[in-house]
Amino acid sequence: MSLKRVSDVNDVPDFMSVLPDFRTDAEQRNSALSLFANEAPDLKMARKLVDENINISGAEVDIYLRTNNADFSDVWDEDADPTYWSPFKIKGFFKPGSVDVELKKTGLDVENKMDIFFSHRQIYTVCQNRMLRMGDVIRVPFNGAQTDITPKMYRVVNASPSGNFRYNWLYMVCKLESLTADITVRPISDIVPDDEPIRTNGAHRESI
User: Fold this and answer.
1) What is the C-alpha to C-alpha distance for residues 141 and 115, in angstroms, rounded to an integer?
2) How far apart are CA 158 and CA 116, in angstroms?
3) What does the alpha-carbon distance between residue 18 and residue 9 come to, in Å, rounded to a whole number?
């Protein structure tokens, strides 16, 4: 069943009437004041300011994009044995949280979560329509002395655009959780050796 359009302006009730407009339909629909205008100068300026904000306040991180191998599930968007592409560097803003270490039956548990903000335009320039998604890995710079418990690798739990301006997204925000010792993305030189680098000058040390 199709809707019946009003055939004549005179058929419109008084409470729905408007002042007459002598512009063409194209001029009315594509006004110079329209908010939906991807080429608007103020939108381009907003993108530039976002890039400047990230470049000044952000830190350089490495992003490992997850590949779509044979183990990838389109239904659950998960990969039981993930593999990653070589990382690319980009700046992102994040607030490093405190390192909480909890001793459990299985050993030390270092759970750390945080949010990281990227320029939506910069991410799109590298990733195109793929953007960032759940399962990608981000390596952030931490200068903690205890390298065995200092979080460096984070898994993307959720990635979504943020900061809408004139129907365009300006930021890309990712919710991250710490990822411990994933050998697929962690360099061998970064893995802490079994022997602690403590000089004993030949003296015998008892294990605790």
Assistant:
1) 14
2) 11
3) 10
